[in-house]
Amino acid sequence: MAQHRFRVEDLKSATDPQWFARGERYFEQGRVSRLRYDQRGVSAVVDGSRNYLVRIDTSDGVLSDSCTCALGQDGYSWCKHAVAVALAWLATDRETTSSPPPPPDPELSAFLEDQDSAWLAEQLLRIADDQPAVLARLQAAAGTHTAVDTARDALYRAITGYTPDPDGWNPGDGGAEWLRQAIDTLDDLVEYGYEAEAAELAADAHALFDKTHEGYEDGHSERLREMGGLDSD
Ligand SMILES: [Zn+2]
């Protein structure tokens, strides 16, 4: 097996948080297969909307990746497929597997755990009031069907309000962050059992994105296409 001297923390700091989270989910879902080690790194297949081939190299101590998905072919580093493979690789080596990270703010966590649930509910609803993605997540957790409508509303507004940035990946720019959160809501729907609704919504949203932005494609449209089970061609 090749030597790899990176840790989960290194991978995390090298990746976009949204792709890390998605890659982590892919890894946990067991979508990584055919791991092949060699002197310089590892190759593997990731089962997404179709199969993607990922290659990770640690030559000269530099961690690099490539993937056959649309993002990878555009030269984007650390798509979710590459993250999933890196995590699978780390998991095969007990020595480098780290303990789960502590909560970001232990003092705040302790405070919240001590609070009355009615007070907590009020705080959450107040936050959800002006964040439709949060509202949809809570509704999905509660099992109410309004979750799908809320998610649709948030997604459509984020898509039409989005200004694409063809020159790069600028989180928070041109409504990209808002759109990212709205697309994340689809994952929440899936998590709470609205799989068919989420796929249908993703396909509809992809069509709206395509129409609104006249065929422009980026990481957002790629996610929608994949979640909608649409072909890449
Ligand atoms: Zn990829």
From TrEMBL:
Sequence ranges assigned to domain SWIM-type in this UniProt record: 52-90
InterPro entries in alphabetical order: Znf_SWIM
Keywords: Metal-binding, Zinc, Zinc-finger
Disordered: annotated segments: 213-233
Tree of life domain: Bacteria
Pfam families for the chain: SWIM
GO molecular function, one term: zinc ion binding
Protein name as annotated: SWIM-type domain-containing protein
Species this protein is from: Halostreptopolyspora alba
